[in-house]
Amino acid sequence: MNIKNIVLGAMALSMISGVALAGALDEPSNMAPFFTDSSMKTMKPEAGFKAAWASMPKDKQDMMMKECQDAAMSKPHAEFCANLNMYAGHK
After folding, report:
1. How far is CA 13 from CA 16, 29, 62, in A?
2. How far apart are CA 49 and CA 3, in angstroms?
3. CA-CA distance, 62 to 30, in Å (whole number)?
4. What pLDDT is recorded for position 89?
5. What residue stretch is flagged as signal peptide (predicted)?
6. I need a labelling partner for 79 at 20 to 30 A (CA). Which of 1, 57, 71, 85 fits?
7. Where are the alpha helices (DSSP H) in the chain?
8. How far is CA 14 from the centre of its chain?
9. Distance (Å, rounded) from C-alpha 46 to C-alpha 83?
10. What whole-number distance in Å separates Cα of residue 79 and Cα of residue 82?
């Protein structure tokens, strides 16, 4: 019985922490405006990237910039964060 409780507890904890790790950079609706394709493999050129950034609400901009400044959060989105830092500027 204890093993079952341990396993269930571990699963619950992993699901909770998995949700907590998802951030603004992992949200497709936030990222889609910056890409030319639905698979989000090809980023828009500078003008399109800047336009997508300018049209985004300030709170989302702040969340994305914060995540791009965090090495662990930005690692899977390195190319995007490099463009964001270059085009949108550091805060």
Report:
1. 5, 26, 28
2. 51
3. 12
4. 66
5. 1-22
6. 57
7. 2-21, 28-31, 46-54, 58-69, 71-74, 78-87
8. 19
9. 8
10. 5
CA-nearest of 90, 87, 91 to 44 is 87
Please state the length of the chain.
91
> Is residue 44 within 8 Å of 34, Cβ to Cβ?
yes
Burial of 4 from C-beta contacts in 10 A (0-12 / 13-18 / 19+)? exposed
Task: Return the pLDDT at 8.
Answer: 63
Encoded tokens for 57:
């609400």
What does the pLDDT look like over 24-46, one tens digit per residue? 899 999 999 999 998 999 999 99
> Using CA atoms in the order 69, 75, 77, 80, what is the torsion angle rounded to 10 degrees?
50
Residue 85 CB contacts under 8 Å (≥ 6 apart), including other chains: 68
For residue 16, the model assigns a pLDDT of 52
